[in-house]
Each structure stands twice: as structure tokens, then as C-alpha cells.
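Sharing a chain and its predicted structure for anyone who wants a worked example. Both blocks are below, sequence first, C-alpha cells second.
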Amino acid sequence: MRLEVGDRDLLLLQEWDGPAVAEHDLDGDGVPDYGVQDGNPLIDHEDHYRMRVHSGHTGEVLWERFGEQPKDGFGLGMNGIGDADGDGRNDLIVGTPGTRVEGRVAGKLYVLRGQDGREIYTLTTGLEHDGLGVSSVVMPDFDGDGVKEFVVSAIRYPVRGVPGGGRVSLHSGRTGQLLWEQFGIEHDHSNRGAIFSGDAFGYEMASAGDADAYGYPDLIVYSTRFALAGANWGRVHLISGRTGEVLAAYESEWDDSVFGRTLAGIGDTDGDGRAELVIGAREFDLHAPDPLDPFPIVDVGRAYVVSYRPDEKRFIRGDADADGDVDITDAITILLHLFAGGPAPCLEAMDINRYYTGVNVADASHLASFLFLSGWTPEPPYPDCARFETLRDRLPCERSACE
């Protein structure tokens, strides 16, 4: 089968999550169908994006639909969600991150009828430049209404009142009702002269499978943390599919490897009852972490197979005195530990910036700047309790407020 496209079409094939026939057969012939988005807006259609749904059996175009506005990104975050409207046919969700809503540029998510592309309902956040609809993942039916739920990201959703942090939220597939939400921790600092566009939490997402062995699929979420301290500090978060709680945060041994740009759950490979995760770092340079190597082999890439370890101690980075809050007393606790031999119940929680140098005065300064001058947020896990996994050296944590 061959799919003919125009000269100006750059095709972006969207993958469908979940069982093949049961959830992705949109025309009722028992064969999974597939959606295609034009990777560039079409000049001959006034710069509108187009998505088309093709028969998996014949390749025939079942229907097509254009974005409502020019260059709105219509067709991103495409996924099948089952029968949302009760007509007996599977339906799908489609994101439009650049829609104009009441004169403002904001994202919009469509739930469309699978058989003809007609609108069932839409979702917006009501906020400007939120980036809603860039990525989505289908989840099980948590609310018991017979329709699978879905997670959608808004990668520019504000944090501390400033865009760029990002939000990931679980919604009822039947009604769109919000079931839980989780946020990135760092916003865009470019307005303060820094080259950093925020976490963009949810830029990529994937189903993790049942990573915590609670009987439900969990979620893997990528934060770009682009250009923080001059590097791409990609971070990956494992989130409970049931509750939205951050279970663990992961970092690579090298900060400029685009760690987390590719994600997948691969099932239980070691027989411990918990699904493993694959995290890709597509620009990993061989030997790059070794500063003495004058000839690193660049952009080799690396994949990590990761197991969730529930026995790891949970903590909050920045909570130096282990009282459950991050405030000025934590900065004072760091200074007392450094200069007066004060207690350090969790040294890892004191290492605010993770700059390879252990705990020092810069960590207290970093924390004070965050608290009073809108400076950089502490590195994950923050602001809630979570586990932390790294391939770098890490500091001991004997006690935290999370246990």
C-alpha cells in the first residue's frame, strides 16, 4: 500500500496507544485505522493544518479535517480513546496548541467522532499561551463510566504566575471532567535575561505500564528544562496513573544529552511485578562526562532501562531541616551545617542546584534567591515528596519529612 502526498506535505505519523483493533478501528471493519497530520501548514489552504484518517485496510481517506485557524498546530497529540459518545464507534482526541480563544492564543483539545471527525466536545484551560494539546496518552477507565480516560499536556501552563512550567492532567473520556493534574516546577526566565524557557512539563509522555505494582498503568513525563545553566537539563518524572502523584524523578549522568526526549514502557522484564521504563538520550556523547577525554564521540545516543524502586527514600529538595516545608530556615540550616557543624538529616535535600559540587554556600544562596527574588526553583524532587534516581554520585539521606 502506498500513500500519495503533495509536494509541500511533511507528514507526521501519529502512533496510537492501547490495543490495536479494539480501540483504533474507527470505521468498524475490524482493522485498526490511523491518523496523519501535515507537518507544515498548507499554503494552498491559507496556512491551515490538516489531519486525515485513513483506513488501515485500504489506505483510503475516511475523512479529513482542517484546523480552525492558520498555523494553529491542529493534529498534534492525536490518540484513540474508545467510544466517547456512545454511538458504538471508537473516537479520538486531537490537540491544537495555537488556537485563538477570545482574542488570545491558547491551546484547545478536540474530542472527535471517529467515523466522521465531527466534534463531540472541546477542552481549554482559559489561559493564554498554555500549549494545550501537544501530547496525550490514553489511560484506563478510572471513573467507571465505560470509557477510557486520557492525559493531555499544556506545556506552557504557568508556574508561580509565569508561563513555561507546564501541566499534565487526567480527564474523563466521556465528559472531559478533570480527574487530577500535576505541574512542572520551573517557569520561563527569559524575561529576566536568562536563556531558559521553562520545564515544558509534558512535552513528551508515554504510558509506563504498572510501574508501582498497584494494578493500574502509570505515566512517564518529560521536562525539557531547556538551556538551564547553559545545558539541556532534561528530567523524567514517573507519575501515578491513579492519583497524579509524582513517584520518582530521574536524571542522566550528563546534562546536555536530551535525556527523556524518547520514552516507553516495556513491561515487567525482571519479574519483580513492576513494569520497567525505557528513557532515551538521543544526543548523549560517548565519554562526554569525562572532562579529560579530548575526543568525545558526539551524539551517539543512549537508552536507559529503569526500574521504579519503592525502597528508595523520598524527600523534598530544599527541605534541609526535614520539617516538610521549604523556607528561609532551610537556607539557614545549610549555612549552620557548613560553618557550625549543624545537623544534616538529608544531605541530598540540601544540594539545591545539583551542580556536581556537593553542598556549599551556593545552595543556600540559590534557595534564598528562589524564595525572595523569583530565582531558579530547586531541582526535583520538589515541591512534593518523591524518590530520586540518578546515575551520578548522590549524597546520603538518613531522614526526611516524607517518611
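Comments welcome. The first strand starts at residue 11 and ends at 13.
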